[in-house]
Write a structure and sequence with these properties.
Layout (H helix, E strand, L loop, with lengths): L1 E11 L4 E11 L2 E5 L6 H8 L7 E6 L2 E2 L4 H7 E4 L11 H11 L4 H14 L15 H13 L5 E5 L7 H16 L4 E6 L2 H7 L2 E6 L2 E7 H4 L2 E9 L3 H10 L4 E4 L2 E5 L3 H13 L4 E8 L2 H12 L1
Parallel strand pairs: 3-8, 3-9, 6-7, 7-8
Antiparallel strand pairs: 1-2, 1-4, 4-5, 9-10, 11-13, 11-14, 12-13
Helix pairs in contact: 3-4, 4-5
Length: 303
């Protein structure tokens, strides 16, 4: 099932083309939208919310047309903006309740729902304090809570880990993953930090200068490479020599050996050599591609 799709989507501004004939579709789950700053990620989200008209092409969100049904889209979609937009003299509870009521919930239901989502994002007693005294991490949690308060079918999260320290990033990523798995809400999350999306996404879309570079399941981005990392406690040099004698391609990096996988016989050769030399094997790990590697390769091909 496609929860959103674009066809030849283009957005031109007087001095730049933000989106260039973008054609892509997104299924359920957590989808990452990857690109450098200025790649067109925020522009795409604004078009999908019906807040910005495209110059050409079209798009649908939950089978609703972005150019003619923007109001209906915003009723059933949550949005966490990148920029700081919280009123400093209002508490998180007051703010989220107000937005819940704007979405059509009666006041009592709005208060109950606001309390639920604020607890879910990790704000307990702090939710009664004015948001002007919040840390960046707390403000990000409030923005996530308001995106969830009206029980949307899908949420758009624009750079949700911006400004967070490592612990805050980990906690935010865990929240996003829970939303997509435990609560069954589809998520489109943007980031320029590629390693983050490897941890939480089912599918990743890579764009650069408004153009689609690649759209694939995360498993395809991070598939195994043809290289084994081998680490032994001692005897790395004798091991390298023994493997080379048996026709294996070996490169030594300090205590590590990188061995090219030519087939199942490579694994057998490493096992036999370790046993014959009476070595202590610490790890034997097959390498995996990273989104960052794929992004670099795809961008180079476009150029």
């Amino acid at each position: 099932m496609h929860i959103l799709a674009t066809e030849g989507l283009t957005k031109r501004f007087p001095t730049v083309t933000a989106l260039d004939r973008l054609t892509v579709d997104v299924g359920t789950g957590v989808t990452g939208l990857v690109g450098a700053n200025g790649a067109g990620k925020s522009t795409l989200i604004k078009i999908l919310l019906g807040l910005l008209p495209p110059s050409a092409g079209g798009a649908k969100v939950l089978d609703l047309d972005v150019t003619t049904q923007g109001t209906q889209i915003r009723r059933i979609v949550g949005y966490m903006p990148e920029h700081d937009c919280l009123p400093p003299d209002v508490s998180a509870t007051e703010f989220v309740v107000h937005l819940a009521q704007m979405s059509g919930l009666p006041r009592t239901a709005a208060r109950e729902r606001a309390a639920d989502v604020l607890r879910h994002v990790g704000l307990a007693e702090e939710r009664y304090r004015a948001m002007g005294g919040y840390s960046t991490g707390m403000k990000q949690r409030v923005k996530l809570a308001q995106a969830l308060v009206h029980d949307p079918k899908m949420i758009f999260l624009d750079e949700p880990t911006n400004g967070l320290d490592p612990r805050g990033r980990d906690e935010m990523l865990a929240l996003i993953r829970r939303i997509g798995t435990e609560f069954g809400i589809s998520v489109l999350v943007t980031s320029h930090l590629l390693g983050e999306l490897e941890r939480i996404c089912d599918h990743v879309i890579v764009i650069d200068a408004g153009r689609l570079l690649r759209s694939s399941a995360i498993t395809e981005f991070t598939q195994a490479t043809q290289s084994l990392t081998v680490e032994v406690e001692e005897g790395v040099q004798p091991l390298a020599e023994r493997l080379a004698e048996h026709g294996q391609q070996v490169t030594q990096h300090g205590r590590l050996l990188l061995v090219k996988v030519s087939g199942p016989e490579t694994f057998d050769a490493i096992r036999d050599a370790v046993v014959d030399l009476d070595l202590c094997l610490i790890r034997m790990e097959q390498g995996r591609h990273r989104i960052e590697d794929v992004f670099r390769e795809e961008a180079a091909d476009v150029v």
